[in-house]
Write a structure and sequence with these properties.
Shape: globular
Distance between the termini: 30 Å
Bound molecules: aspartic acid
Radius of gyration: 17 Å
Largest sheet: 6 strands, mixed
Helix content: 25-40%
Strand content: 15-25%
Order of helices and strands: EHHEEHEHHEEEEH
Length: 252
């Protein structure tokens, strides 16, 4: 018999070799993933909607600095954090997304607001941030997203490319308290969740900071419905991770 509900989440395609991972790092990553899974599972267990479970699980990951989403997102080549997120309801084929936002604390909730409270599917940049603010979603200073090890990853990446690193953003914290637990997973990382609820409705959500050192203004697959995120009850719920340009070209 098929399970009453199901939930699958990923923490991105950045490579973490098991052999390189110290036991305390392994525990730290698993603990956050477990918390996210539990947040989604609690919704589904109470016969809640797949869409709510997806949003609840992603919000846990986006608030955690270990993952490339929200706090802990990677930097663009000019030292900015630009966030992309999308959510889709497989029961109705309604979808919402934001791209290049810099001020809304939980972009997955902004994506959901676009879906439910605007006639649009995708809002970008300052217009998307302004929409989120008008909808009452919590705003933060862009320095909130700054994490020291991501800054060092940007410096390394630009050095490899023979480019000069930008100056550190104003107000950036030098707090490295979580750094010992974080693992350098390379240029990428994203979070994604798919769920099916007890009514067999499915939903998908994806959220990313993009790839380290990408150009400001670059948008990957994650917020594009049909590339990095898709859900429909008769087919499946999908959240992608990997080099977004390939997903876009192939309409994955
Ligand atoms: N797909 C994301 C992007 O290209 C990155 C990732 O999944 O790691 O923006």
């Amino acid at each position: 018999m098929a399970p009453a509900w199901s939930l699958v989440l990923h923490g991105g395609s950045g490579v973490i070799d098991r052999a390189d991972l110290k036991p305390e790092q392994d525990r730290a990553y698993r603990a956050v993933l477990a918390r996210a899974a539990e947040a989604g599972a609690a919704v589904l267990e109470a016969s809640g909607a797949a869409l709510d479970a997806v949003e609840a699980a992603i919000r846990v990951l986006e608030d955690d600095p270990l993952f490339n989403a929200g706090r802990g997102a990677v930097f663009t080549a000019d030292g900015r954090v630009e966030l992309d997120a999308a959510i889709m309801d497989g029961a109705t084929l309604e979808a919402g997304a934001v791209a290049g936002v810099t001020r809304v604390r939980n972009p997955i909730s902004a994506a959901r607001a676009v879906m439910e409270r605007s006639p649009h599917v995708l809002l970008m940049g300052t217009g998307a941030d302004a929409f989120a603010a008008a909808e009452g979603l919590r705003q933060v200073d862009p320095s909130y997203f700054f994490v020291e090890r991501r800054w060092r990853a940007l410096e390394k990446q630009l050095d490899r490319e023979g480019l000069i690193a930008p100056t550190r953003p104003l107000g950036a914290s030098r707090d490295e308290s979580h750094a010992a637990l974080a693992h350098d997973e390379g240029k990428r990382g994203t979070v994604g969740v798919v769920a099916r609820d007890v009514r067999a409705d499915v939903a998908a959500g994806t959220y990313t900071g993009g790839t380290t050192g990408n150009r400001s203004g670059r948008v990957g697959d994650s917020p594009l419905i049909g590339a990095g995120t898709y859900a429909s009850n008769p087919s499946a719920a999908v959240s992608g991770t990997g080099q977004g340009e390939h997903f876009i070209r192939l309409s994955v």
